[in-house]
Amino acid sequence: xxxxxxxxxxxxxxxxxxxxxxxxxxxxxxxxxxxxxxxxxxxxxxxxxxxxxxxxxxxxxxxxxxxxxxxxxxxxxxxxxxxxxxxxxxxxxxxxxxxxxxxxxxxxxxxxxxxxxxxxxxxxxxxxxxxxxxxxxxxxxxxxxxxxxxxxxxxxxxxxxxxxxxxxxxxxxxxxxxxxxxxxxxxxxxxxxxxxxxxxxxxxxxxxxxxxxxxxxx
Length: 218
Known about the structure:
Elements lengths: L8 H4 L8 H14 L5 E3 L9 H12 L3 E3 L10 H9 L4 E7 L3 H7 L6 H13 L3 E8 L6 H20 L4 E7 L16 H8 L9 H4 L1 E3 L1
Parallel strand pairs: 1-2, 3-4, 4-5
Antiparallel strand pairs: 5-6
């Protein structure tokens, strides 16, 4: 399974557990028995879809004319098949969490050690299917210098440019790296937020104070 270094759940909630396809179908059927008018299903998972059964549960919901919401999807698991299924389930926005476009942070976060071009391709595939995109990024890591902030900004500009040309909306959510005793970064002194804000001043959007408002829309 995936063990991102900043993630509390993979340590506190270990070991990995999964409900069977049969049980998931049963839960949905029971829901429809008691609430036949409520057709919306929310799928909560830290890593979805990593198994064929995950696609089969989406197919099951499509067959039953349900509306589904998948709060987040792993970038390396995005495929045309799953995008078509999510579109059929009436999902409008795909949420992804690259966390950082800086190679240094990617390596230390144990997540997506990939160049900006790889992220561009993944996001473009999502945009081509008619989805809007929400992107989660982490800021405030103790090793980050202005160079890392600049890398994030440059890659975001390229991704946002693609979305604008396709008349799609992108929301960028900036989230601080919060120290927790149960994972790799138990304690460190946060960099001043003004440093991050200075780096993001050149990025267009509704918010010019990302550390305070923590959300940018394009």
